[in-house]
Amino acid sequence: MLTLASRLRALDDAALRRTLEIRAVPATGIRDFFDLAETLLEPEAVQRTLAQLDRATLAVLAVAGELAVETDPDSAPPAPALAELTERLSDLAGSPVPEADVAARAAVLDSLMLGRLADDRFRPYDAVAAQLLVWPALGLPTATELAGAPAPSALAGVSATDTRFTDRLAAERAFAAVSSIAELVTELAREPARELSRGGLGLPDTKRLAAVMGVDLEAVASVVATAARADLIAHSDGYWNETEAGEAWLLEGTARRWATIAQSWHAALPPDVRGILARRPGVSWGEGLRSFVAWLYPAGGEWMDDRVTEFADDAELIGITAHQTTSPAGAAVLAGDLDAAIATMTAALPAEVGAVYLQNDLSIVSPGPLAPSIDARLRGLADVESRELALSYRISATSVNRALAAGENADSLLDFLRTVSLTGIPQPVDYLIRESAARYGRVRVGATDPAASPAQSYVQSEDPALLGTIAVDQTLAPLGLVRVDENRLASRFGSDVVFWALSDARYPVAAENAAGEIVHLRRHQLARVLPVSTVDPTIALVEKLRASDGGEGQAADAWLARQLDSAIKSKQTVVVSIAMPGGVVVDYLLEPASVGGGRFRARDRRADIERTLPLSSIISITPAP
């Protein structure tokens, strides 16, 4: 502990914070560097860290500990050289182990404060080596087993028939996932979903989204999480809304939509999980992979297995896998080749179509999955009736009015339909659009001048009868509409609230500005994906440790006393540098016995006599080599 405490004290603040972070040191209960060293070397803390190390790294640690003991079990021998460690590992493995690989793993262990790497020598701390010695009693492998046990047999390959089946099924799942998420993003743009204070969506919103996406209630949370992970939707002010990225995503092709979701899934994989899966593309994720995970992480197989399982469920959802077998596109994602994944998925997905059938009954039928840009514009003009592979829509006066409110006009709508219709424009469709455009704006909503009226908005129309209908409409009663004159009503609510209430009530309403010009309102603002601001607890802990250290300019008797106390408890021999009269510095090899009254008593190992020395004369204390 003394060695580690001294090492921690010598770190700069950035390195110390990094150590606290990677070892997940709690911010409470630590007063000084000795407490920190003691915390890092506690058996539970050591075991938690060992559980996250792969087999090869553990083998370096365990074999280094054994070599150190074999050199001289009764003294403090020098740390084993990396060349010696490499030779022993190669003998145990039965094949050459690169020294560069051993050095890299020793560097990782050094950064984790599990051992010390210096001058091409590596030695684990005693508490770490002691923890590895109890592994056999815990059913965990010994150093020999860590270095010598071969990996499980290679996972069985997938036959050509199975590959074709997997490819087809994964493509179906990918298409279904993209379609469901597209419906989710579109629906949240129309009507956000409220997030409960305890987390999750309320049952009414869950049912609404399940119906829109065509999924079971239990699947809604997974689809929402997948969309949120890709930043297509975001949680803002208590509601889930569409984001700017989600709005742009809706205009991309199906394969690229899928690639965005797959890329976000891959990016969210913890590095250790990503490393495992990248080693096994194109094979089954069943028991064979679980066996490999258990072998690779012998101290944390269950922990690692849970991590793999967590992302395996989402992989099935979005078509990275099908029946726990990696799809060709999924294998490309795992290998980090997104372009190849897009090309593979494009070939597997059904081709997009760019034309539809317009019917006399005001319905629109797509013969296949529509190009996203066409689908997005049709949704602005018509309501979706069927969300199967072949979409169907229905035009109504309300849907046309919605398109007009978004900035369309009769000519732009008819021109668009002519370009995509395989059956021309039926007369009922033409009549409905032109009639709706002619009626659009018969009711105007705008903001009042605060200096001229206590009301916030007005509703006006040149048709007094229509305005009278609005005034007595009970569905609009919450707006508190008050008659101002024959052609004008006033409300205490804002113009946007009044506008959307009238629009939902299917009145031909338009919003206008102070100059009387029609403006186009957006019902819900896009959510912003904000970075999560968190307070770094390591900063305060480092400041606390530095403050307890007393600063470089002080004698730091407390630090010296703690070092000596630690050496006494562990019966550790230390080298104490003493400032003698005349400026001479003398190094004593001492075994401390007691500390008190500003002095300490110790046994001089070289002279074999007892010495009593003042703490004020100590320049430094270092563990004996």
Automatic annotation (TrEMBL):
Residues 357-484 form the Helicase XPB/Ssl2 N-terminal domain. This is Helicase XPB/Ssl2 N-terminal domain-containing protein. The lineage of its organism: Bacteria, Bacillati, Actinomycetota, Actinomycetes, Micrococcales.
